[in-house]
Structure formats: C-alpha cells, structure tokens
Amino acid sequence: MITDFNYWLTGIGCAEVFFSNEKQNLRFKFSYLSDPLADLFQALTKLMKGESKKEKIVFLDEPGQHVLFISKETGDVVSISIFRSAFWDEIGEFLIDENGIELVYSDTDTFSNFGSVICAGVDSLLGRHTLQEYHEKWVIYSFPAELYEELKQSI
What we know:
The protein has a single domain (2-154), classed as Secreted effector protein pipB2 fold (2-Layer Sandwich), CATH 3.30.2450. The chain has helices at residues 36-49, 111-128, 131-138, 145-154; strands at 2-11, 14-21, 25-31, 54-60, 65-72, 77-85, 102-110. It has a four-stranded antiparallel β-sheet with strand order 4-5-6-7. It has a three-stranded antiparallel β-sheet with strand order 1-2-3. A hairpin with a 3-residue loop joins strand 2 and strand 3. By secondary structure, it is an alpha+beta fold.
C-alpha cells in the first residue's frame, strides 16, 4: 500500500518523483519531454470511471525512461508496477529483463488510498509552486488544473 508520493520540480525542465510503501522507496528524475502528471490524472480518472482497466504513464529522461502501469483488479484494488529502461523503447510488462528493462517498484493498493496519496503529493507540489511558477519551470506544459479537479471529484 502506497504511503507517500511526491513530485518535485528540481530545475528548468527537470523533475523528480518519489513513490514509497512500507517495503520499498523509489525516487527518479525525468524531464519535460513528457507530461506524466497530466497523464497520471487522466489515467486515474479513466480507471475510477471504469473507462479503462489498465493505464500506462511514461516519465521520459535524457536518455531513458520509467514507465508506471496501473491496473484495476477486483473491486477497489489496483496493482502498480514501475519499470526502468536506459532507452526510449516501448516498454511492456512482458519485456522484463529484455534490453535492460527492469521492474523497480511494485505494489497492490486500494484505489481510494492510492488516489488519496497521489492527491496529497500533488497538493504539496501546489503548496510549493504557483501555477505560473509551475509553467515557468516545466517549460512546455502548464499544470493540468482541470484534469486534477476532475480527478479529485472522482475520488
């Protein structure tokens, strides 16, 4: 069960994310080449509304990537897997150990807890940065405020 999620803007076009549960911690850096926060909000909203059973969020870096998979299981349960690759190749869960792709984080949680912890981390991010500061640091993308509001209403 996830206990902590944090999303830090660490510089112009650079960010860091942190996932933690009672057994493991994962922290990694990524760049503005993707917009994983917007993708995460959309994915969680789709899962919550039953529009999808599995979602993929890509955190691109220069080079490499981390890919978060969230799968809706029975009832309110979700499984969370994060894979790392030194390349930008397509990552699927079936490709573990091929081309340097490795599973670096896995968890099972209730959707309500996972969503609440994600929202708490995002609220912390918004406490550190105004929407204008977010856009200035994240360069290409503005904070996805509408998607975030929609997510919070569905949780």
